[in-house]
Specification:
Number of strands: 24
Radius of gyration: 29 Å
Number of helices: 22
Structural class: alpha+beta
Shape: globular
Largest sheet: 9 strands, mixed
Helix content: 25-40%
Bound molecules: adenosine-5'-diphosphate, magnesium ion
Amino acid sequence: MSEASAPRPAAAIRPLPEPLISQIAAGEVVERPAAALRELLDNAIDAGARRITVRLQQGGLDLVAVEDDGCGISADQLGLALTRHATSKIASLDDLEQVRSLGFRGEALASIAAVAEVDIVSRSASLAAAAITANNGRIGPVTPAAGAPGTAVSVRRLFHEIPARRQFLKSAATEGGWCVEMVRRAALAHPGVAFQLWVDGRQTLNLAVDQDSAGLQRIADVLGKSFAQDALPLQQRIGPLEVRGLVCRPTAARPRADVQLFFVNRRWVRDRVLAHAVRAAYADLLHGALLPQYAVLLDLPPERVDVNVHPAKSEVRFRESQAVHHAVYTAIKQALAPALGARVAVATPAGAAPAASFVRPPSGVSAPSMPWQTGLPLTQQLATWAPLPTRELAGMPHVADGADADPAGRQPPPEHPLGHAMAQLHGVYVLAQNAAGLVVVDMHAAHERIVYERLKAAWSAQALASQPLLLPVAFEASGRELGAAEEHATTLSALGLDITPGGPTSLLVRAIPAMLGRADPVRLVRAVLAELAAVGSSRGVEERRNAVLASMACHGAIRANRQLTLAEMDALLRDMEATERSDQCNHGRPTWRQIDMDALDALFLRGR
Ligand code: ADP
Ligand code: MG
């Protein structure tokens, strides 16, 4: 036995001293000047400030200061403001269920005061101003001071005394860039507040209160003329969900994610549901690697979103994420509708005049008269023909979105929304007939999505059955593959894969998931191993799992050029109808299109 693994004498367990607890917590709450700035801005906004002034020195490394004209803190409360878990914003678990303020944890100021030199001067209405200082956890007494109504907080030399943290700070230019970004985000979310920013003594931002109630002017001011020129406004209310903001025209998409901002109840967040909704809305409109630019603001009742899921409050969890997805998706789709019309025009065969007569720009995304339905969620499209349970699928019982308007006068609901298969085209597309006309399905993309959703469901139910191969297959494996097979043995077996070493440089595949019976076992295993080896631990568990399942789905899905019988094609259509999100493949491309009789008639200049 090596010395390292010899048992050590047990160390005594003792409670950590309070300053150390705050210093440890500080690592999560304020890992850099910009994070401290965000907390100070949040506090100023929570205090009802109408005017906020931010000063930075050396990118915030020397100084981050925020001055506001908010409600202030009275002298007898100043000490508490620097105490951990002391807050004026929530008092009970019920309050936590519906947080209306940006802060609520009561740990920002205490954390910052534990790892920097802080001074606060504050004056609440009609009372005299008072000051307090803290130096890396050593908190001074409250003293009388002079100051205007409101609060001024200065944070100097963040992490200066904590080398373990200080070493993670970047250059003043980089840290300063992040600080400026924080001010911009706060300004975008709060058009009713005036903002000033001073960087090393020079004023770099001066934003007056935006009089426009939707805050569009503020967005344009912050994000600049060139963004605003190519942007389309969002304005959508679905039940209790309101979506505002600006999104770029597809033609203004850029190779980099310069502006991709989400705000939920005026709080900047990163969120996968929202990001996906945007991607889906642009799915068929963007060229290759271009990325949409946007600032999307979502407002919803606070009890429908959990803000208490991230130490720096940068993530939220929606109680009804489907409904949120739907609202954002619909808002963007509607904003882009004219762009959509233009795109359809491209599909017009040359010389098929008068093109304009059939390429009607869609008036609304759920309009049943839309000639080509592009990439709408299947559930929503189906709602225009059949009384499908859009509401249940949207996950929110009282959301009215117009899609379930009285369908009087429309055709009786057909048996199957995607119709019946008629033929396969060049081994790639399935052609089907439904009441509205022609349905074209990209069979690999559609099947891949179905397999993917099934894999996810089976994985969640821990029921990914494995099926032994008649003959195990060996393959020469790289060091990376061998390593991944060993390191992720448990995951692999949970995925229904049975892989054992076949020798010093080879692996033996003994079983694959029953659901992927048709897949080439070696290719499948290699793809999974590559995915497992590649995924950084920075990605969330769910994201990593999905990446692996997606690559499995790709190998398990029917390949192009495979001849399908009509019965198999019909089965695929039925599976699509039954699968959520089957309107898009795992890469965001549409899996099927509807081409209405009107559109076909127009192609042939046939009056009806
Ligand atoms: P939280 O914001 O989560 O309550 P903080 O540590 O950020 O926790 O702040 C603690 C308390 O100090 C707040 O609840 C608030 O009462 C008070 N406070 C902090 N900053 C300000 C400010 N700029 N204006 C008025 N009160 C403030
Ligand atoms: Mg706070």
